[in-house]
């Protein structure tokens, strides 16, 4: 049970670091992810519809903003569990940066190969006006998430000692 709490705290912390990064980008005038669209996609997924020509033009789902934020944090916890599965539970007691950032970077596969195509943006954002820019932005965001995995684990270790 303690391991589940540890992984959950690391996932929530890492996701919060990513959110701070996204707020920074937004204040700099950079377009960032609309979590309502994630909630809309999940809402439609629960109704049996996986893909959309454009998630922005798809029918809104009641509570999609809350659903999107909950999913965002749940996915962050799942990715933290992936890191622990790859690096081992002992990593949480003595976290190192490299495994966290590498797993964070690897998690970019989820939006580029699953979520964006299902939401109408195409594989590797190929149906957007600037695919390379969007892919690099996603990779950067997920690298920041990886940094957040490390920082959250280090902070958790410091707080619990």
UniProtKB/TrEMBL annotation:
<feature type="transmembrane region" description="Helical">
    <location>
        <begin position="96"/>
        <end position="119"/>
    </location>
</feature>
<keyword id="KW-0472">Membrane</keyword>
<dbReference type="InterPro" id="IPR021329">
    <property type="entry name" value="DUF2938"/>
</dbReference>
<feature type="transmembrane region" description="Helical">
    <location>
        <begin position="139"/>
        <end position="159"/>
    </location>
</feature>
<feature type="transmembrane region" description="Helical">
    <location>
        <begin position="66"/>
        <end position="89"/>
    </location>
</feature>
<protein>
    <submittedName>
        <fullName>DUF2938 domain-containing protein</fullName>
    </submittedName>
</protein>
<dbReference type="Pfam" id="PF11158">
    <property type="entry name" value="DUF2938"/>
</dbReference>
<keyword id="KW-1133">Transmembrane helix</keyword>
<keyword id="KW-0812">Transmembrane</keyword>
């Amino acid at each position: 049970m303690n391991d589940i709490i540890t992984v959950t705290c690391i996932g929530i912390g890492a996701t919060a670091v990513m959110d701070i990064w996204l707020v920074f980008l937004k204040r700099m005038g950079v377009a960032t992810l609309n979590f309502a669209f994630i909630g809309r996609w999940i809402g439609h997924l629960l109704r049996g519809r996986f893909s959309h020509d454009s998630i922005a033009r798809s029918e809104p789902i009641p509570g999609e903003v809350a659903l999107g934020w909950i999913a965002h944090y749940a996915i962050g916890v799942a990715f933290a569990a992936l890191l622990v599965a790859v690096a081992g539970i002992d990593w949480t007691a003595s976290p190192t940066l490299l495994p966290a950032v590498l797993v964070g970077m690897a998690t970019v596969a989820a939006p580029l190969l699953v979520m964006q195509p299902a939401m109408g943006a195409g594989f590797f954002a190929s149906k957007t006006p600037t695919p390379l820019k969007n892919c690099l932005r996603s990779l950067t965001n997920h690298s920041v998430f990886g940094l957040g995995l490390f920082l959250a684990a280090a902070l958790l270790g410091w707080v619990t000692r």
